[in-house]
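Listing S7. Sequence submitted for prediction.
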Amino acid sequence: MERIEKLLAFLKENPSDNFVQHALALEYIKLGKDNEAKDLFEQLLARDPAYTGSYYHLAKLLERNNDTDAAIKVYEKGMEETKKAGDNHAFGELRSAYEELTF
């Protein structure tokens, strides 16, 4: 809980800090607070679609919660953004997870 409290304090100081918001979402996932994590990832990606690290984690969360259609859309958007950014490694991870889900 201490990590979450620290992250929340950092986020209060700078509400648009993508790294802190992403880290907090990951901490919520560890605690099984998927709704809180989902909300944070969605807010972050709505504000900054180029923050590509969050697509994979959000899509996996959606998969775990049996929201396959939404997960597919997140993978597709993530692949589009990583391609734009020239991040071949992240693109490959997203494509692999996407193909595993859809084939």
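Caption to Listing S7: primary sequence and predicted structure tokens for the chain studied. The chain has a mean pLDDT of 97. The chain has one domain: 2-102.
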